Amino acid sequence: MNRIAHFFLLLINLFSVSNLSSQEALIPMPQDIQGSGNKLDLSKGMHLEIDKSIRKNEVNLLRDILEGHSINIQKDKRGPAISLKIVSSLNGVDSEEGYGLKIDAKGIHIQALASKGIFYALQTLRQMDFHEKQVALVNIRDQPAYSFRGFLLDVGRNYQSLSMLKEQIDVMAKYKLNVLHFHFTEDVAWRLESKKYPGLTAAENMTRWAGEHYSVAEFQELIDYCRDRHILFLPEIDMPGHSAAFERFFKVNMQSEEGIGHIKELLKEFSETYPTLKHLHIGGDEVKISNKQFMPEITKYVESLGFKTYGWDPGSNLESTTVRQMWMGGPKSIDPNAGLQYLDSKHLYINHMDPLETVTTLFFRRFAEQEKESERLSGAILCSWPDRAVEKPEDMFLQSAVYPGMITFAERIWRGGGESGWRASLPGRETEAFHEFAAFEKRILLHKTKYFADLPFPYQRQTEMFWDLIGPYDNAGDLTKEFLIEKDPFGDHYHVYKNQVGGTIILRHWWADIIPGVIESPKQNSTFYARSRIWSDKTEEKPFWIGFANLSRSYASDSPAQGAWDELHSQVFVNGQKIPAPKWKHPGQKGGLELPLSDEGYSFREPTKVQLKEGWNDILIKLPVGDFKGKDWQNPTKWMFTFIPYH
Fold first, then answer.
1. Phi, psi of 370 (to 5 degrees)
2. Phi and psi for 162 in degrees, rounded to 5?
3. What SS3 class is residue 124?
């Protein structure tokens, strides 16, 4: 693409984000939406027509929406109406979570088969544009592709306050996620009060966030908060693995006869303390099973208490009645003859993903290689596992793309579809898939501005970054070796290996066997270059996100050496000038799970200031690699780069 065409494309993109219509800006996008271009005038207010069967929570939500736009609620029946009705049948809708939302000249009409549908219709209405008290005329028929749409929070390792949890639950509800998987027991700590064994949550039995836990009242408040928002609260008591906190207090292995007795006491207390809960995740992964009867015995006991059970797959020897939550291995279809129930969490761990990669991957994700719910798969759970210690809870939202990931996942799991296989980088800009992503990116950036202005939202526009990948050059194991392209990056004589779009480009993923990078059949001891041009209206210094080898928040990865961007000797040149790496706070630090990351990732440090000249600026990224083994399993080789303007 020539410079002028590139420049005008950027202007079009910038203009179009702020000029999306109401129906173009919704997340998740409804399954069927029709608009006329006309608008309903609500400047004189509305009157309510609400069935007696409508819950008080939904009525209050409606009032909040109208009051938020300063739309008066009239007592008389003159002018437009807003009606909420639960009906016995609705054309095109067969789910209790589905709804019909029609805005016409007479008013706003919402119908659903159950309260859940009314709630989700109101969430859609909440996102409509009421500029100058006028709203677009639309006709929507909508329902989810999957009935189980979950988000996992790990508070066992890193404690989060009740207010922070409620903030995330509110976002879940607004984007139609309906299951909170709450992981509160860990090696680090057991974070729920036990009246029978109060010492279980004592500070001396925790190795991180000592003493921080949830009281019975707080836990119940969390349950109620979810219920009011049509969110299933799915707590996890991890057994028999991740149980070091349990063992520190009881002084016995959970799989022992005495340990089984204690965990049964805790399970019985749990069921009696929270009688409304009917679903319990029993864990079962990442543990050596020394007692093969443990999980069958515990499962039968938990089920006798009235719970439906969920467990990790692969994991321990789960019973056939337990729903399997898949977490390991590549993309694979479920055997329809297996006779088991599944949830998908494979490659849905945002702690392993680069923040920009998160949105790309989740947008194209197809769950268990199927387009919608089936008899064996009811949905998926997006997981946030900040294994590594953090200095403060807010860091978890900057190190991982929690909110961008959550709403992208919400779009995909509500609508269904996606691509077969897994994708880490964007498709070619001439493809239909790219245009679908670009349209979604406009929506997510609008939501970032409109709804997340005061919340951490580590995402920047990617679809305006165009790269030529040039290489490979044989560096013979010398990662510092220079090639002529560094002297004349934009010479016409260089063969372009591939054109690529994106702010984060992954040449070879650390899980290359299941997630392809943009380089086909990559070779060790080779160097690639990525070149691009960026326009500046004037000479000035601008902030950029620049990064390499994005660190997982679950590994004890080492920090870069002072003066280096990464261990691969990657470099950045702008107009021929080398951009120095940040002055690291902990250069060359040997990684440890108890050593918080501080500035190692681009999304949680100050953006890099780059001097630009007026007009076009030449960007060259140097990307050497040696072997693909990595220093050790905590420091895998993820051959990649991030370079994008920060707005």
1. -135, 160
2. -60, -40
3. helix
Q: What is the pLDDT of residue 6?
A: 47
Phi, psi for residue 547 in degrees, rounded to 5: -165, 165
Residue appearing with tokens 């919608």: 372
> Is the model's pTM score more than 0.90?
yes
* CA angle, residues 514, 520, 521, in degrees to nearest 5: 85
Helices 162-174 and 402-415: crossing angle, nearest 10°? 30
- Rounded to 5 degrees, φ, ψ at 411 are -60, -50
**Do residues 116 and 96 lie in contact, with contact meaning Cβ atoms separated by under 8 Å?**
yes
Instruction: Please report where in the chains the tokens 């069958």 appear, as a residue.
Output: 296
Q: What is the pLDDT of residues 8-37, one digit of tens each?
A: 444 444 444 556 776 789 999 999 999 988
**Bridge partner list, 620:** 531, 573
* Domains of the chain and any CATH numbers: 3-142 (3.30.379.10), 148-440 (3.20.20.80), 460-645 (2.60.120)
Q: What's the confidence (pLDDT) of residue 314? A: 96
**Helix or strand (DSSP H, E) at 444:** helix 432-451
The span from the CA of 528 to the CA of 549, in Å, is 15
Strands 81-86 and 46-50: parallel
Measured CA to CA, the distance from residue 145 to residue 597 in angstroms comes to: 38
Beta carbons within 8 Å of 330's beta carbon, 6+ residues apart = 346, 422, 513, 514
- What DSSP character marks residue 595? S
Strand extents, DSSP E, 187-317:
232-236, 279-281, 308-313
